[in-house]
Amino acid sequence: MVMGMASILSSLNGHHHAACWLVLIGYLLDLADGAVARRLDACSALGAKLDDFADFTTFGIATSLLLRTPDLLDNILCMCYVLSVFVRLCFFSSGIPFMYRGLPCIYSSAILASASLLSGGNMAVLRVIAVAMILFMISQNFYPHDRVLESQAWKKAVYAGGVIMVFCSSFPPACVYYLLWSVSYILFPTSLWSSKV
Question: What is the C-alpha separation between 135 and 139, in angstroms, rounded?
Fold first, then answer.
């Protein structure tokens, strides 16, 4: 949640590069928080609610501000993005263990933040990606809920690579790494990212 709030403040103060990287750091932290809570035996109903609030802050509000311009249509797109994250978090429980209905918002946010960094904030590119991510999030497709840090060694290595990329934030391949990681979750959800793989 702290990364989301810091990203929001960065966006509002015109620090677009920092805002994008704070969303990507939030992505890493979100993938780790559940594993840490289970390891410390600190899981609770309050923790689950706080996690949803943190997700909404970082992957809803903070990510939507990456799309913000003075243009009315861009502001409407921002609102649509926030609402799709809200709908995704509130109503899209699959009822199937270890499965999500609709693309988890952390992946759509990572794609938008990476694309924003790689394109230099090109709004034409970001608009197309944002609309696609909204459609993926509200789709009825199933995506696996894989506990990356409690899974196979290669997935832990992918996560470790993401942590290393944070320290290479001025290097464009770092953004490509996050982009490929997130797009692979959309393209190969069960063949790569299922907890059974």
Answer: 6
Average pLDDT by stretches of 10, the chain with 197 residues? 93 94 93 80 76 91 94 95 92 69 92 95 96 94 81 88 84 88 91 72
